[in-house]
Amino acid sequence: FTFSFRRETDSHNLNSEPSPIKGKTRIQHIKNILVSKFVMPEFNGDGVNGHDQEETATVANGNGVNLESDSTASKSASLKSTAAAINGHSATSNGGDSETAVAVAKDANAEDEDSASKEKEFQFSVSFVPPSGESFSMHVSSQELVQEIHQILTDREDCCHRTCFSLSLAGKQLDNFVELKNVPELAEGCSIRIVEEMYNVKEAKSHLRHIQDILRSTEPIDAYLGREQMSLSFVNAVTQNSLLSPRPPGSVTSIGGIGGGNGSDKSRQDKNGGGNSGGANSSGANSSSGGGANSGASGGGAKSPFEPPDYALPGSHDLPVMPLHPLSLTGKPPICVSNGGLSFSQWHPPPPNRKLHGDFIYVCFHSLEDKVFHITGSPRGFYLNRCTETVFDPRPSQPLLLFHSLVDLCRHLSNGFKRNWDLLLKVRAAKHPIERAPAPYQVYSWLSPILEQTRDSLAKEEWAGGRLGWEEALPGQTREWNEELQCTKELPAKLLANRVIRERASFKANSDLVAAASRAAVAVLDGHVPAINPVDPPTQRMYIWNNLFLSLGYDVKGHYADIGGDSAALAATSADLRGVRAVRNLDHHQLHCLGTVLVDYRGVRVTVQSIVPGLLDKDQEQAVIHGSVDFGKTIVTDEKFSELLQSLHRVLMSKPHSVLDESDKPRLFHTSVECKGIRGSDGRLYFLDLLRLFPPDVAFLTDSKDLPLTPSNEELRLPAPFPLQHPHRLGTLRPELLQAFAEARGQLPLFNTDVTLTRLSVRFSSDYASTELQSDVDLLYEASNFLLAHQIPLLIHELATHSTAPADGPALARAFHSHGVNLRYLGFFINRLQTDLSAQKQQQTPNSPAESAAERASVYLFPLAIQQLLVRSIKHVWRRLMAGVEATNLATAVCHLLNCMFSQAPVPQPALFSDELSRVRRKSKKKASPSASSHGNAYLFDQGLAFVQHNSTSFWGCIIEELTNYYHVSSNFEFVNKSIGSLEEFETACSRSLARLYGLNADEQKLASLSKYSLLRSVCVTLGIQLALREYSFDSTKHLTFREDDIVSLFPVVKCVHPKASDAYQLFHIGQQRISAGQLTEGQELICESLNLLTSVYGPVHSDTASCQRLLGRLSYLLGDYGMALQQQQKAVIISEKVFGIDSAQAAADYAHLGLYAFALGQFDNALALMYRCRYLSVLCHGELHPETPTIDSNIGLMLHAVEDLDRSLQYLTSALRINTLLYGPRSLKSALSHHLIARTHSCKADFRAALQAEKECYTIYRERLGEENERTKESFDCITHLTRQAVVFEKRVRDLQAGKKAGGLCPLQIQTPNLSNLLETLNLVNGIFFIQLSSCDLDKIRAHLASIADLQQPEGQAAVAAAADDSSATAAAASAAAVEGEGEDNSAALKQEVLD
After folding, report:
1. What Gene Ontology molecular function terms does this protein carry (predicted)?
2. Chain-centre distance of CA 1046, in angstroms?
3. Distance between CA 1201 and CA 283 in Å, rounded?
4. Which of 436, 527, 981, 1281 keeps 20 to 30 A from 1087, CA to CA?
5. How far apart are CA 586 and CA 824, in angstroms?
6. Which residues of the chain have pLDDT under 50?
7. Using CA atoms, how far apart are residues 848 and 562, in angstroms rounded to an integer?
8. pLDDT in tens, 600-618
9. Are 752 and 831 in contact (CB under 8 A)?
10. What pLDDT, on a 0 to 100 scale, did the predictor assign at position 598?
C-alpha cells in the first residue's frame, strides 16, 4: 500500500512523496519510523481498527518501564491477567490445549473477580502549579501515593530544588500516605498547587544534602566511593549518547545507499532488489578496470571513525586498563561552586540565643567569583546574613534576601552559579533514567581514579556524630531489623496484588539490611564500635550495632577444635547461610529465620545477624526449646516446633532420627543437634545455627567420629583417591545435587508440592554423627558416588562441548553449583580433565580429526579453572596473613602482598610505618626497639605482622601448598611445584602443562596463557581491594609493580540471601515456554507482565529485570522492530553494568547484542564502538581463547566489511578462523563459515586467488559434514564456480594490460559487494539465528522431532524454532525462525539437515 502521513496540528504532510508500506507491517513499526525520522513525540494510533489497536497497545505496554510520573501505571494495571496466566499455566503446560493461559485463568479466578475489579487502576492527567514558573501537566496513576508524587516532583529538573512543600487541591492539603484514588476531588485535568511549607531543622539539613547531591549527580564520585548504592555505567559514554537520538539521512557511512537513520524497517530490504538503490557505492562493484573494492580506512589520510583502537585488535594479550573507565568520553560536568562548595559554616551550629530567633543552620557558599557568602537556614527559608570568616554577625543583611529554596538564593548571589546550574540540569536530564537509579546492593569498582579531596562539612558532621545509617524519616531511632523482616513475611499473600506488596516490602527490608550490615562490619573492624565483651581476646569479641549482632569468623572458645578450628568456623558461616536460604525458600509462615549477612573485609569474616527478641534479656538455655547448646550433651525438644520441622523433610529430603532427651528417653529428632529452635519474646519460633542442615560430604571425611559406620559393600566405597583429607569436616552436599540424585533414581522433582512423603524413597538422615542405620550410610555413599561418577563427568562434558561456556570465575562457580558440585572439587575437576585427555589420546588413531577436535574443545576451560584455583588459594593465604594487621600498616601490607603475587623485581621487607612516623622516630634520642624481623613467627602473628616475613618465593610456596593440601591438585601438573617463586614461573609451568595436554605450539600457548590484568581483576574483586586507575608494569625486574599510594581503599565483599519475586519468575518461565512453542505474541505479553512485576518488586535496576529487557530486545529483533530492540537492550546493558560491574562477562555479552541491533538500524559507528568494547571486556575477563571470541571477531569483521575497511575485516575474520580451528577443529562447521566469510572479503578486494582457496576449504568441509545435496554445499560450489570465472577474467585482463593490449571483449568483473540486508543475514548466521520460512505441517514435524529427543542430552547444535538463546535463561523461539548453533554431538549434523530441509 501507499500512504501519505499528515500531522494533525498543522495539517502538514510529513512525507513529500507517498510511502510504500507492506500490508503485514505492524502499526507499532510505522509509529517508530515517524517518531525517529521526524522527531515526533509518542502518539496514539487513531483510525486503527479495534483488534489491531488492542494488539499494538499490548505490545507497547511491555516495551519498557517509564521511570517518570506514570512509572507505576504499568506495574499493576494488568495484575488480573497476570494472576490468570499464572493460574492457567498448570492447565495448559502439559495438556497441549490450544486455549491460552489467560483464557483458562479467567474461569479459575472467577471467585476473585469482585476484589480485583475494586483495585482496578486508571490513569489521568493532572496539572501542577508551582509557586513560581509555568505550570506543567503530568500523568498519574490512581494507585499512586501522594508521597510518590512528591518524590517524582523532587526528581524533575524544574522542581528538583524544592524539598519542603505540600500538595494542595481545592484549598485542601493532601495527605502524603493516601492513594490518589481516595482523593474525592481528584479528576482529569484538575490543578494541584505546590505549596511551600515551613522548615524545621531536619528539613533544612535534608534540603542542603539534597542540593549537594544534585551538584555532584553528574559525576561518578559516589559510585567510586561505594556510597548510596550508586554504581558505574559507560554505555552512553561509549556511544556519545547517540544511540537513541535521531540522525539525519546520510549522516553515517553506509552501504547500498542505505542511510543511518533510526527507521526500524530500514534494514528490511528486498533480497532480490539489492537494497532498492542498485548497490551503487564507491567500491566500484561493476567496474571494468579491475581495481576491486577500496580498502577504506586502511589507507593513508585522516583517521577513520570506524578504526579499531589498539587494545581491541586481535592478538592483544596484556590489555591496558585505562580504557576500562572512559572518563574522557563523559566530558567535564559543569561546576556551580568553587572548592569550598556549599556546606556548613564554621559558625554552625547556632548558639542558644540565635535558636530563639529561628536560626536552624549556618551555610557557607563559595561562589565561582571567589566570593564567600554566609547564609542562615530558618523556618521561612534561607537568607544572607552578615557573618564573615572572622566576625560572627548572624543578623540578616540589608536589603533582606530571603528565598524559600537555597538554590534560588545562590542563583541571585552568583551569575556563575545561575549559568552553570541550568547547564547542570541539562546534563543531568540527558542521562538515562536507569543510569541515575541506585542498585539494590552496593557494587564496588576495583579501579578508581584518585579523587580530589574536597571540603564536605555534612559528611564530617555525620561521621563525627556516629550516624548509623537510619532513614531520614526516623531521626534519632534505630531500625528493628528482625521485626521488619518477620512482619514483611507475615503480610497477606492470597491475591497477586498482596503478594507483590509482600515481596516488595521483603526485598526492601533485605536490601536495607545488607547495606546496614556492610556498614556495621566495616565500622567494627575499623574500630568504631565497642565490643560487648572487651576483656576477651580480639578474635572472640562480639558486637551490637544498630540492632545487629556481629561476630567474627574464628573458633570461639574451641567449639570447632575437633573438626578444623578456625577453618571449620569459617566454613560454618557459609553452611549456615545455605541453610537460611533453604528455610526461607520454604516460606513457612510460622517458622522464622534470622536476617543473616556474611561480610569479608580486611581478610576477616564477619557474621551479621538480626537479634532474636528477648534473647539478650535471659539465659540462652531458657530460650532454646529445640536442639542443644553444649554440642549434644543436653538435648531439648518441643512438640510444636517438631511439627513445624516436618515440612522441611520435603525440601531437604531428610527424615527424623531418634535421640535421648534430658531424661534419657528416646525422642524423635528432626534435625542435627547443632540446629536450634528458639522461642522469642514476640512469640515467634526461630530456627538458627543451620550449619548441618544438609547431609555431609563423605568424600572429605576421614575421621570415624563424623561417620561411625562404613558402607555395607565394596561397590559403594568411593573411588581413589577419596576420601580426601580436608582442613575442616563441615563439608555438605548441595541441594542441587540432592535434587539431581532424586531425579536420577526416578523420583518426582524435588520442589513439587504435590509429592507426599510416602512416595519419597530418597530420605537422608538428619544427623549422621549419631545414626545407627546402615541403609542411611549406604544412601549417603551412593549420593557421593553419583556426584563423582555422574555429575562431574556431565559438567565436564557440557563445558567441553560448549553447551555451557563460562566466561569468568563466577560463571564457572555457577556452573559447578548448578550441577550440585562444590568448588572444593575444583582440583579433582582438572585432574579428571587430565585423565580424560590422556584416555582420548590413547584411543586416538593416526587419522582421526574428529577426536582431535574433541580433544581440544576444552582447551579454553583449563586456564579458566587454573585461574579460579589460583584466586581461591590466594584468598586462603590472604586471610591468614591479613588477620590482625593494624590500621597504620594496612596499605603497607596490601601493597607488599600484591607485589609478592605479581612483581618480577625482588620484593624487600616492607617498612611498617609511614615516612612521617619514621622521621619522628629518627629525631628521638631514645634507643630504637628491636625490629619486627628479630622476633619469631608467633610474635609476628600475634602482632598482625605475619606478612612481613614473606617475599615472592615464600608467598608462592604458600599458594602451591594450598593447591596441594586444600584442592588436591595432581602433582603431574608442572605448575604444582614448590620451586615456583613468581607469577612468571607459574605462567611458564601452566604453558608447559597446556602444551603437554593439548599439543599446543608456541603461538597457541601464548593465546591460552593467563592474562595478568585478568588475574589482578579477579584477585581484587575477590579480596575487596580498590587500586588506583593507572597502567601497571608487570615485567619490570628493577621496579616493583605496586606502590602504597596505589592502594586506594578496601571494600567489603558481601554474601546474603536474595529474595525472589515468585510470581514474576513463574510468568517468565511460562513466557519462555510460549515462545519456544512459537506463540511469540502471547510469550511477549507474558514477559512484559513479568517485567512489570519485577519492576514493582525490585525496582528498575536488578539482574532479573535485565534478563527480561534482554529477552524482550531479542524478541523485538526477531520481529523486525530494531528500534525497540535497541531501546530494550540499552536498558539491559545499563542494568548489567550497574549490577554486575562494568567489566563483567554479562556486560560484555550485552554489549555484543546491543552492537548487533545498532548495526541493524544502520548506526555503523555506534555498532563498531560497542563491539570494540565488547571484545575488550571479553578478553579482559577470559582471554582470547574462548568460544565467544570468534563470534565477536566475526561480527566486527562483517561490520568493518560494511564500512569497506576490508583489510581490518580480514584481520578479525582470520582471528576468528584461528580460534575456531583451535577450539572446534579444522573440519568444523564454524571453521567452514569463517572460510566462507574470508573468501567473500578477498573477492571484494579482487584477490580471487585467495578467495578461491578459502572457499574450496569451505566446500570441502560442507561436503564432508553435510553431504553433496545440502543447500550450503551447493551454495559453496556455486561460489567456487563464480570465483573461478572471475579469476580467469582477471588474469586475462592483467596479461593483456601487461602486453599493452586493450582489455576489450572481456566480460566486466562482477565484484558483488553485499548490501545491508545480506550482511545482516550473515550476522544472524554467525550469532546462531536462521530465519526459515516454515509451513504449519513443517512446524508440527519439527516440534515432534524436538519432543522425541527431549530426554537426550542437549548437544550444542540442537535446533529450536526461532531461538534467541539466552545465556542465563531458557531458549526463546519463534515460529518463523530457527537457530542452529555450533557443532554439537554426532546427531547434531543430522538434526541440522532435517531442520534446513
Report:
1. mRNA binding
2. 27
3. 11
4. 436
5. 27
6. 9-11, 16, 35-119, 250, 252-302, 466-476, 748-760, 849-852, 914-915, 921-922, 924-939, 1305-1306, 1351-1397
7. 54
8. 999 999 999 999 988 777 6
9. no
10. 97
Burial-class residue 527 by CB neighbours within 10 Å (0-12, 13-18, 19+): exposed
Phi/psi for 108 (5° steps) reads -70, -25
CA distances from 539 to 565, 599, 784 (A): 13, 15, 35
What would you measure as the largest C-alpha separation in the chain, in angstroms? 116
What is the model's pLDDT at position 22?
Answer: 59
Q: Three cell numbers at 48?
A: 486503527
Distance of CA 838 to the CA centre of its chain: 37
Task: Pick the closest to residue 1195 from 1046, 1328, 1024, 1346 (CA basis).
Answer: 1328
C-alpha distances (whole Å) from 931 to each of 855, 940, 1002 are 56, 11, 48
Rounded to 5 degrees, φ, ψ at 606 are: -115, 125
Q: Name the residue among 1133, 1134, 1112, 1135 with its Cα closest to residue 1124.
A: 1112
CA dist 32 and 1123 (Å) reads 7
Q: Indicate the helix (H) or strand (E) that contains 676.
A: strand 676-679
CA quadruple 1156, 1159, 1161, 1163: dihedral, nearest 10: 130
Alpha helix (H) residue ranges in 1183-1311: 1188-1202, 1206-1224, 1229-1244, 1248-1266, 1271-1298
* Spatial CA neighbour of 1187 closest among 804, 896, 770: 804
| Phi and psi angles of residue 669, each rounded to the nearest 5 degrees, phi first | -115, 135
Helix (H, G, I), strand (E, B) or coil at 470: coil
Phi/psi at 623 (5° precision): -85, -25
Q: What angle do CA 557, 561, 565 make, to 5 degrees?
A: 95
> What pLDDT, on the 0 to 100 scale, is given for residue 1293?
77
Task: Specify the length of the chain in residues.
Answer: 1397
560-589 pLDDT, tens digit per residue, is: 888 889 999 999 999 999 999 999 988 888
Which residues are bridge partners to 448 per DSSP? 1028
Reply yes or no: is the peptide bond before residue 399 cis, omega within 30 of 0: yes
Contact 38, 16 (CB under 8 A): no
How many Cβ atoms from other residues are within 10 Å of residue 449's Cβ?
A: 15
Strand runs labelled E in 745-834? 764-765
How does DSSP classify residue 1044? Answer: G
Model pLDDT, residue 479: 85
- Number of Cβ within 10 Å of residue 298's Cβ equals 17
Question: Pairing between strand 447-448 and 1025-1028?
Answer: parallel
Asked if residue 160 lies in contact with residue 138, where contact means CB atoms within 8 angstroms, the answer is no
Instruction: Name the residue type at position 404.
Output: H
Q: What angle, rounded to 10 degrees, do the helices at 952-965 and 890-902 form?
A: 80
Find cell 473477580 and name the residue: 113
The contacts of residue 1396 (CB under 8 Å, 6+ apart) are: 1270, 1271, 1272, 1330, 1332, 1380
SS3 280: coil
Q: How far is CA 470 from CA 480, 487, 546, 1263, in A?
A: 11, 18, 9, 70
Give the per-residue pLDDT at 33.
58
Beta strands in 80-182 (DSSP E): 123-129, 136-141, 165-169, 172-173
- The SS3 assignment for 1379 reads strand
**Residue whose cell numbers read 601438573:** 973
What nine digits make up the cell of 167?
500538595
Grid coordinates representing 847 are 587419522
Does residue 721 have a cis bond before it (omega within 30 degrees)? yes
pLDDT on residue 928: 42
CB neighbourhood size of 198 (10 A) = 12
pLDDT of residue 1201: 92
pLDDT of amino acid 468: 47
Element (H, E) at 195: strand 191-196
Q: What is the pLDDT of residue 936?
A: 46
Q: How far apart are CA 298 and CA 1207, in angstroms?
A: 6
Q: Cell numbers at residue 415, please?
A: 551569575
Q: Which of 760, 819, 813, 823 is nearest to 792 (CA)?
A: 819
